[in-house]
Amino acid sequence: MQTQDLISRLATDLAPVSPNAVSRALNRALVLGLAGNTAVLAGVYGIGSDMPEQMLTAGFWIKLAFPLGTIAAALTLAGRLARPGCPSRRAWLKALAPVAAMLAVTVALKMATPPELRLGLPLGETGIGGLAGIVLLSLPALAAAMHAMKRLAPTRLVLTGAGIGLLAGAQGVFVYTLFRPASPGFMVDAWHVCAIPAVMGIGAILAPRILRW
């Protein structure tokens, strides 16, 4: 078979790709990831008994704004990383800004608070266990995002893994904050925020192996 004939046969079966294919795939992964995260949380930790009371407080909803904003920005970032050659620098800055801001606020708050009063701050009373818990909750979302990206066309695999890790980590923080509100007040625990870079690292390590064409 001549090369031109092969090209013609391959081109005959081509169908146009929907312009919304990427967003649909990522939105589906988002829903599946949140469902998986919730199932893991219910099975491992259970739903917080004080959740109904917490939902009546302003602090509960303000704390949810952080992971929701990060999810929205990370979803846009993932959409850019799924397209070859699509610039993503600005999307990275927008997605990382909430995480950096929250960590900066917690560090500044700790430094400005006398040592004897720091135990009452949401700076890490959950410790490594809280970080590990968020990472565990984020794994279903990371798997769903990896599966979606496998069907798309990412070329910067390490960055793509880090980007969907950012998305998955924010989903883990959202589910934990929603169903098991830990600390009072308006801020997310610092250890929970630190879990997001950890999930980004996991994604960056796994993506070149899973998403390789």
TrEMBL record:
UniProt keywords, alphabetically: Membrane, Transmembrane, Transmembrane helix
Chain ranges passing through the membrane: 29-48, 60-79, 91-112, 127-145, 157-178, 190-211
A Pfam match: NrsF
UniProt-listed InterPro entries: NrsF (IPR009495)
The protein's name in its UniProt record: Protein of uncharacterized function (DUF1109)
Origin species: Bordetella ansorpii
